[in-house]
Amino acid sequence: MEEKIRAAILSGELRSGERLPSEAELARQFDVSRTTVREALRSLVSQKLIDKTPGVGGGSFVRSVDHQSLGNLLQESLHNLLQLGNLRVEEVAMLRQYLEVPAARLAAQHRSDEDLAKLQDIVERQKTISVDDPDVPDLDARFHAAIAKASGNRLLASFVHALHRETEPVHYLDLSPEVGRKTVRQHQKIVKAIAASDPDSAEQAVNEHLVYLREHVLSL
């Protein structure tokens, strides 16, 4: 049931803002229990494909499929492939790096003031926390995803979001306080280049950042 509704949303058969049938009607259509329907709807909400609105006039509504929801679906597929052993983490991490260099270059060319403000806010937060703060992985993922979003290419943003969230590269680093401080300074340099709309400097800054990270990766 979940797979069929997901496919209908992604294919456009179910349009943005369209209301799904009631739980009782979905249970009848798919010949499943109400419990199965609720579990499927909860999963679709977590994938950001539908919204559930309580109260009179509420229900389940199809969301606009943006880069984040597509990224969540890609991440789920990558996770399954990694769990089954069909892909190695190193392969996924390498692809992520190949995508992030052109993403930074495009971000310097196409970023909006809102994109820039988001990047600056993330870096300011990174400057204030220690390397053992539990927010470190999430902030790192948000930083790289924000660069990809600023590129203006939603498909590129979806892939970077999925690849970065699934591999969580910060967990593979020898993240000493000095490495943490150096990483944040590199993030600042990337943001400075994007703010200046300088694609060459943005590309160089990301390359330097990725080379530095590779030098401090723990043995897998």
UniProtKB/TrEMBL annotation:
Keywords: DNA-binding, Transcription, Transcription regulation. PROSITE patterns: HTH_GNTR. Pfam families: FCD, GntR. The keyword Transcription regulation applies. Residues 1-65 form the HTH gntR-type domain. InterPro entries: GntR_C, TF_FadR/GntR_C, Tscrpt_reg_HTH_GntR, WH-like_DNA-bd_sf, WH_DNA-bd_sf. This is FadR family transcriptional regulator. It comes from Streptomyces hirsutus.
